[in-house]
Amino acid sequence: MHNFMIVRSFVKWQVTELRMKIYEKMKVIMLEIKSYIEEIYSQAVLWRRHFHKYPELSNKEKKTSDLVAKHLQSLGLEVNTGVGGYGVTGLLKGSAPGPTIAFRADLDALPIQDEKDCEYRSTVPGVMHACGHDGHTAVLMSVATILAKLTHLLQGNILFIFQPAEELPPGGAQRMIEQGVLQGVEAIYGMHLWTPIPRGMVGYSDGEALAASDGFEIEIIGKGGHGGIPNEATDAVMIAAHLIVNLQSIVSRQLNPLHPGVVTVGEIQGGHAFNVIAGTCKIKGTTRSFDPQVRQELLTQVEKITTATCQMFDASYRLEVHRGYPALINHKEQSEIVKRLAQDVVGENHVLRMEPIMGSEDFAYYLQQIPGAFFFVGAGNERKQIVAPHHHPAFDIDETAMTIAIECYLKIALEHITVMKQRKGLYDSENVSLSDWLS
Ligand SMILES: [Zn+2]
Ligand SMILES: [Zn+2]
């Protein structure tokens, strides 16, 4: 045999040896992780139920963030509090230097009365965790707890971001970014427990995931008068009726039908007696879109149609636009990682590609700055009658879905920054990744 061939086969043998060793090691680590998840689950439930019982509205998440900060400190993380409001960050450093990736949870509840009848029902009148953010916080606290035991495997760092005020634009994400939380962070991941998907499924999307959302308020100013003498009045309620119908022509007649958009008027207030012509009438609505140009076009058309409709009936108006969150666009590479690792966790047939949703999320701001992905972990369960949609007074989650979310995060962490990952360079020609090792 030629000398070169001998060296080559020796190197190949060495690589195979090393590969086997790492493979064996990763198998042990994954078993270890499973037992850690089983172990932490009851604590995760306790945390989630505690937050559920004592929910705090957006920008008032003081006790929630105190509890999170205390726990992260007890794990030995580098903790910052009061970041962009009641935001908390915790940096977990691996045993060797390497890249930093971030995981984000949101802390806030909603102004909704909890109508469930259960031990962990909200104790705060009119305030409720009706979106599952209590679960997100408990999941990330659990992930931090487990990874703090695995720092010997980490070549790099994990930044845990607990963000306030997701439910109330302008939201907490932008403020935390302004405080520099993303500095030096290579990629970010976020997760939503999602009851429209059954427990056991994970949803990902590799592009447009959630819409841009803006709000508008219009006050039509006419002239009040006697219900029997309309010619002497300017009927604001009648003008509002025209305006609402006219606004519906924006999507149906102005917008390119291949570009999604929504105009919804959700609130109308005008008049106070059946026989009196109302002098003013207020309407409130929201616009949704993905494309930034469509986003602007919807708002421009709202103003144009309001001006023209009021002019037609000799009324004036006041228009206020409230800019909401931009569209949440996932990055391809990170979405691919989520998809692949989620398949490891729940099986290939239980990972679904999600259609874009016209809801919105301020996680969008992080994705405008650095690569990352936002994914959905199914938390509905018809058998347990956990079927209420998000923001509903009977909302609940199947708590066992938290174990799936925890495992997804752990696999993402290990995929990015394990010692094995750094050695991956050895096998670049073979394109090895965590899921290859485990399959
Ligand atoms: Zn929500
Ligand atoms: Zn939410």
From TrEMBL:
Residues 215-306 form the Peptidase M20 dimerisation domain. GO terms for molecular function: hydrolase activity; metal ion binding. It comes from the Bacteria. The Mn(2+) ion enhances activity. Keywords: Hydrolase, Manganese, Metal-binding. The keyword Metal-binding applies. The keyword Hydrolase applies. Mn(2+) binds at residues 131, 133, 167, 192, 391. Its cofactor is Mn(2+). InterPro entries: Amidohydrolase, Bact_exopeptidase_dim_dom, Peptidase_M20, Peptidase_M20_dimer. PANTHER family: METALLOPEPTIDASE, PUTATIVE (AFU_ORTHOLOGUE AFUA_6G09600)-RELATED, PEPTIDASE M20 FAMILY MEMBER. Belongs to the peptidase M20 family. NCBIfam families: amidohydrolases (TIGR01891). This is Amidohydrolase.
